[in-house]
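Project standup — Tuesday

K.O.: blocked on the structure for the chain from last sprint. Re-posting the sequence here as requested.
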Amino acid sequence: MALKLEIDADSDGFALHFGGRIVLRHSPSCPAVAIARGAPTVEMVRGNFRIEDAPQERRDLTEWRLVDGGIEFDEIRLSWDAEFITVTAENSAIDRLWVRFHAEPGETVWGGGEQMSYLALTGRRFPMWTSEPGVGRDKSTELTRRMDADGMAGGDYWTTNYPQPTFLTSRWLAVHLDAACYSAMDFTDPARHEVEVWSNTAHFQVFAADGPKPLVSALADRFGKQPPLPDWAIVGAIVGLKSGASSFDRLDAFVDAGAAVSGLWCEDWAGIRETSFGRRLFWDWQVGARSAERYPGLDARIADLAARGIAFMAYANPYLSNDADLFAEAAAGGHFCLRRDSDEVYLVDFGEFDCGVVDFTRPETRDWFAERILGREMLDRGIMGWMADFGEYLPTDVRLADGSDPMEAHNRWPVLWAEVNAAALESRGKTGEAVFFMRAGFSGVQAHCPLLWAGDQSVDFTRHDGIGTVITAALSAGLVGNAYSHSDCGGYTSLHGNVRSGELMQRWCELAAFAPVMRSHEGNRPDDNLQYDSTPELLATFARWSRVHAALAPYVRALSDDAAESGLPLQRPLFLEYPGDPALFAVQDQYLYGSDMLVAPVIEEGATSRTVILPGDAPWRHVWTGEDFAPGTHTVSAPIGRPPVFYRPDSPHAAVFADLPQALAG
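H.V.: unblocked you, prediction finished:
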């Protein structure tokens, strides 16, 4: 029997129950709803936002009465049907709602989309607004302060490319706000989980299950599951190079070093421009004069790679530079967002160059981009995948073709962008064969985007913006229906003298090998930073871990096929498999790879050992030594080249795991 919301009311208040749990409780001392009129200010600089509000006439609503079909407050109606709760303001002047869901002592909360700093959200507030995540993301650091002074670009613990107003609790409940407007989830009060909604209507969907795995599967059913990853994407590493035609010779050096290579990713395929931030791409997504100069004979090169079993991958984003050839074509076709005060194309400053925003609220424009650019310029040339970058930059003062409010459309933009990419694959019969990957997202992106990547981490070990954040990103995104995540192996953002170390490069290889896709990146300042082909040692390191990644392909194939059915992520927080141990609820620096492997990457600079939690009641086998460890907490040796990785000796995939040392040795 399907679960449904039920009310329990008396003279003191009421409670809504779902699946035997209290979801929302109201009493005069703890009102469930508050209202106000907003007075917002929004400022954007290159995808970094400062959003403030000064709510007027805010008040908690205490008086209520039970009526046919719901609850009436002063100026508010609360209703429910099956698993849905709706709060509606009857006064159109009200555009701020606070809805407070019941919390119990000691309850842990997760969710929020892709979070970089904290897996467990308990005790903190998280605005839901897609944006640049920032550089540093820690107000106590000099780097973050410098970036804040330069275009509000420092970020904070909650800034993310991919927010989602969905939270899960350790009572195995989940609540989803079905809206794209600005919102915030506040878990600072242990007595309630408060959701702030910038609208006059708030529509919530409630989920309940007997444990975290069926709860995550239910969310995957709700938002959409990704197809299984194609074999080519998991049987070797994707090497990211952006040095024009010489990239092909450099790739051969990786192959000669013994690397298992499945793809060559050249994000500079359409040309480059140099800026103070570093080497940027020329945003004109076609094989034109700049592309031909940088990659002469590209079609033949792509075919040659394909004959060797190596896919060629490229790059695109939903903006076109106003000095690019495609800009005029797009403008003539009415494909850009416009200024509110004129019919001029709205231009966004992306850092020393300006771009038009392709208006995906217009069906003809979605079709044009999918066919003209992604279809004809990329897929028809044999390109097998690409980074579908950005999606977070929709300004809040543009004019959209469908007349919608950009404050409402902003969070929807990554989903529209994903739909365009997915439509291009479908138009060529390439769904599940070609792969695009995105960093931006919002509710519903899961149904269209086959693979996430964690964004532009700093090239360091810092707590809020370094290597460790890619683990938190994968685990948090996986809880809301994203089965696959990976990162830029080596990191990306290098500014103000922050450059890659050999140690970081090696540790990132160790981590990336145990992700569904292993892909390197040269970063924003490739000439200032070490690359994996900079030294024989680094090249050998990458080759070794690419072979480990390839050796895991049979296991990843099994996990991927299961994910298409169950929606369960490949990289899992420990509590997903062991929900009975609250001590695991906030663990975010190690993860289960499927249910049979445990990975504890080294993410602290200079560390040669680390603490590892081995959950459950059965032994775990150390991959590199073959030693069996009892469940519990252990300090494990972890020199460079031997990250702590364990597996279940009774796993049906034990033979695959036992062969990993041989793959590492070559």
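K.O.: great, moving the ticket to review. The CA atoms of residues 134 and 155 lie 4 Å apart. The chain has a mean pLDDT of 97.
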